[in-house]
Every structure is written in C-alpha cells, then in structure tokens.
C-alpha cells in the first residue's frame, strides 16, 4: 500500500509527465470525468473529435485524400452518422497494401511502427503517433481502474513475452520497467503444470492485488488448482483479455480465486476497446477515444444482434484509422449500465476464435502464441496453423515477399521451445488460404480436437 501511494503520487508523475514528458495522466483525468457524462454529451464530444480527424486525414493523408476525391465529397459534407456510413470500410488487407500512403505527411518523422499479432491470420504493420499512445494508455488505465487494478499495485501478469533472444540491455530495461510498475510476469505461452505450480506458490506467498491474464492461461491455472484440490489465496481482482471469455470459465475462476472477473476487449491496433465495470452488465466502450460501430450488412446492427466491429481511432493523427474492420464480431447491448456511466455497453464479443494446440508433453497452448510469434516476420501476408497429430504441425504461409530460410529456422526454434523438440513442423507456401463453408477464416485448427 505504501508503494502504491508512492508510485501514484510521486514516481509515476515524475516518470510519465516529467522524464517522458507525456500527457497520459492529463488524459486519464479527462477520461475519468468523461465517463460520467450522459450518452448524448459523449456522442457530441465524439462527433467533434471525429470531424477534426476527418479534416486532418483529408489535408494530410494521401490515401484518405484520394478516397474523398473518389467519392467526390469533402469532410464538411459528412454531417451525420448516416453520412459517415457512406465512407468506405478499411480492411486489414487494404491497410497492408496502403499503410505508407495512410501516414500523414506532417507526421512522417513523428510516428513509431508497430505490428499486430495477426490474430485473424493477417499481420498488419501500422504507425502510431505519440499523442495517440498517450490517449490509449490512459484509456487502458481507466478500464483497469474499474477492476480496482491501478498502476503501481502489485500485479501478476500472465501474458505473452518477447520471442527470440532479446539482448541483455532489452531484458534489463524490461525488468526495470516491470519492477517500477510493480509487475511480476509469467509467460502464458509456456504455462505447463510446473509453471502453474510455481505461479500458485507465488500467489500464495506474495498475495498480488490483481492478476491480468490471457483468458485461456488463467482459466487453465484455475482448472489445475481445482482438479488437484489445491489451496489458493484469494485475489482481489482478475482481468482477462486477448481471448473470448466463456461463462463456464468465469464461474470456475471466481470460485477458485474467490473474486470477481473483469473482462476486457481490445486489439493491438487501438489497445482497449471496451471493459467491464464493477456491475458486470457488459463492457463499456471507450467512445471518448474511439468511434466503434457494430455493423450488419454495412448498416448499424440492432441491439442484441451480432455485427462486425468497425473502429475509428479518434486520436491517431499519425496514421488515421478510419472505419477499420478488425475481424471481430460483437453484440451491442440495448441497456444502459446501472453504474451510471454514460459509456454504452457491448454485450458479447465473438471474434478471433482459435483452437488450442497440444504440445508433445500434453501441455495445452493458446492458439494466440502463433500470431504473437509470426508478427515478427514482415514478409508474411497471411498464415494458418493446423495440428495434424500430437507431434505434427502444418503452417501455411502466403508471402508478401520471399521468406528467408533463417526466418523459418527462427520460427521452428521458437515453436519447439514451447511445444517440444519432437514437434515436426511443415511450412507450406500457398497462394491463398480458403475460408470455412460459413465464410470464416480460422487461424489455428486442431484436428486432434475433432477426433
């Protein structure tokens, strides 16, 4: 508790606002005020930010200037949401093909490049400006605060870690950063029974105030504890993310850890999209940072109806994300939350469904490991992983450019670190990866699970 107060009042402001000269804390304060505005007030705020973004994109982004000219419209012609619906949706493939043209001319030297995990099978490189990073960091912190998990509290993360062999300087920098933020890290992609036992012992000995985890990893830990009738200290809050959370998983986690689970939804391109508050009536959309649409056949889906998630980042001026379809399916709630926040609710998310992969020793590994690994290779346009047997993987690759032999060797080595040296890996270069009969694109497929 002493460190939390020290971090919140001195260390973090000095680091974030002083040393790094970022506005994260200023934006966090604004976001915490915004959440109690009415929906009408939030929509007016959001529309004002959207109009500014559209004008900027028209003036500074060659790609968007071309779109406006093709449509024969000016940003001033977009006066309502129905007008905005006429603006084209941007797919992952279009972002791959046009990402250089999307970058704003006046931000060319002010952006950092990131790569998505490719959880829909299509890795995407995108640019991000400093101001947008500060907004999205503040939005994530607000979402975590709803779960009583604030920066500086002792938090256990069961998450993806860097692949390959990071340099000593990189490892030291990460260790110092996690130490400052009072985080302890476990690798969710190498989370076998031995690691789960070590994690349980850590929880019982150190009593973290929160756990942030890939959904599958924390569920597997709860199941390991429950199946073996082990004792586990209660944890004040658990935050799940990166994968769909099912009711049966929530129920077991809440039973084992004697706490409430707070679900979150996001994607690497924009970070946090929505998060649960203390009422657990749905996930509040961060509409003061993003313009989120849920569309069915190109039109707004009715509350309770499934639709495609389409996102506009209101603050990334470096590379505007306007009506970006991230590949997920969600359901908007018809109800307002009883907490009193004006932020609307998403009732359910059903996206990026990936089969789990079984290691040679029987350990179950989240399908999310493969997007996390393959995002490191820019030459990959699309991929699919198929587990044929307990010791055989087929990885289908659509190339943007020729993939080097060393890159495949790197992938094989990293996969075998997680799945075992006996795992046979067959890389197959293909021109296209077919959709399922229902029109879905599966990133990982376990034929073992189908037997």
Automatic annotation (TrEMBL):
Coiled coil: none annotated. SUPFAM superfamilies: Acetyl-CoA synthetase-like (SSF56801). InterPro entries: ANL_N_sf, CapK_Type1_Caps_Biosynth. It comes from the Bacteria. This is Polysaccharide biosynthesis protein. It comes from SAR86 cluster bacterium.
